[in-house]
Amino acid sequence: NANVQWGGRFAGGPSDIMQAINASISFDKALWKQDIAGSLAHAAMLAHVGIISKDDEAAIRKGLTEIGAEIAAGDFAFSEALEDIHMNIEARLSERVGEAGKRLHTARSRNDQVATDFRLWVRDAIDGLDQQVASLMRALAQRAQEHAADPMPGFTHLQTAQPVTFGHHLMAYVEMLARDRGRLADTRRRLNECPLGSAALAGTSFPIDRAMTAELLHFDRPTANSLDAVSDRDFALEYLSALSILAMHLSRMAEEIVIWCSSPFSFIRLSDAFTTGSSIMPQKRNPDAAELVRAKTGRINGSLIGLLTVMKGLPLAYAKDMQEDKEPVFAATDAAALCLAACDGMVRDMTANTRQMRALAGSGYSTATDIADWLVRVLKVPFRTAHHVTGRLVARAEAQNIGLAELTLAEMQAEEPGITQDIYSVLSVDASIASRTSLGGTAASNVMAQATRWLDALAGT
Ligand code: ARG
């Protein structure tokens, strides 16, 4: 029993193995809405230019609408023998509306059909993720306003470097996520061309109106080259690249959350809703969500590399290899959506341990740079010399196991005779932070302004 859609020239049907390797219905049924939308637009266009009758178009529209309802209700019997979502829906349409249904595939191929469906799907996914990224940015900016003036140790090499505010640290992620939104928006702009009407690879002899289908499906324009249109998956690759970079950002945030809520740090406490317990150690509060956000980056990067590898070396135009484009995109989308939701929840719910962060912000000689800056500003000492003098002051304090502020003026003057009492005014964490008023610096007023600017910008989204 040969395939009902293409079996005309075949005496026998495919083996079970052939069917198993060939069929994509198990995953591409996710494209059903896009497939129906594409077919509705195609049928409207065919009727508009007179390739099919208005009656046929009406029958097709009715049939497709009913099929959509069947699928939505879970009443549709997906068939592996019909390979994919396109042939499942088309065969069902012919079952329901007869001859008219059999005219739908005029001037179309599954090659331009799947390229169109997939672009529509990725476009919808971008719109959904964009909202989620915006929501996470909002959560971070709100928490940043709350903690605009609360000190925490800033790190480089994960060694205490200089005091920053917790709000400033959170706002750093807002900037990263804003670039992620930009990448998704760029991807969307470039993908928004309609392949429908490219047919199998060469275009069609029918007098189709590609501008019409493009417009009906809210594309900016039809694609320009039929070979390119059916063989291009750049849009999926760009999308996966954007998701990989986004996932890398979320993974860095997740790693920091893991560090911050470890008991030696105790910078934050995650809510019960975003914490798990241990089956043996009753005291444990584990940040599993953050760890899994960190881990799911692997899946998303893997999807990008997987599809890049599928696409490399494929001759034009369509090849069945390209059927392997969907699962990585679906998997990466699910993972990214879940990671964004988890980060959103963790950030909104977490409690900052501001006393602990403030205490540690001043440890590790974190205001040493402020001494060096004072020597430069007040005594006009060259910075490199000031760095040296400060290094010796740190060594003196360290030898006595005390902070810089606890060195006596006489001890300070032993290293640099010009030092006066005034130097103590720059040694506190708050003074250090307050002095960082340069554009983009950590002074509380800067952080507040940046957070407010972002919340205003995000208000419309
Ligand atoms: N299921 C196929 C895919 O996802 C649809 C396109 C099939 N085209 C073909 N010429 N066999 O790629």
In short:
With 461 residues, the protein is mainly alpha-helical.
Q: What's the helix and strand layout?
A:
Layout: H1 16-22, H2 25-28, H3 32-48, H4 54-73, H5 85-97, H6 99-103, H7 110-146, E1 151-156, E2 159-165, H8 166-191, E3 193-194, H9 210-216, E4 221-222, H10 226-231, H11 234-260, E5 268-269, H12 288-311, H13 326-349, E6 351-352, H14 354-361, H15 368-379, H16 383-400, H17 409-415, H18 429-435, H19 444-458
Parallel strand pairs: 3-4
Antiparallel strand pairs: 1-2, 5-6
The protein binds arginine.
Total DSSP helices = 19
Largest sheet descriptor: 2 strands, antiparallel
Number of separate strands? 6
Class based on secondary structure composition and strand pairing: mainly alpha
Shape, per Cα inertia axes: elongated
Q: Give the N-to-C terminal Cα separation.
A: 54 Å
- Please mark out the parts with pLDDT under 50 across 5 or more consecutive residues, or reply none: none
Query: Which band does the percent of strand residues land in?
Result: under 5%
Helix/strand order: HHHHHHHEEHEHEHHEHHEHHHHHH
Ligands bound to this protein structure: arginine
Our Rg estimate from Cα atoms comes to 31 Å
* Overall pLDDT metric: 96
Q: Please state how the strands of the largest beta sheet are arranged side by side.
A: 1-2
Percentage of residues in helical conformation: 55-70%
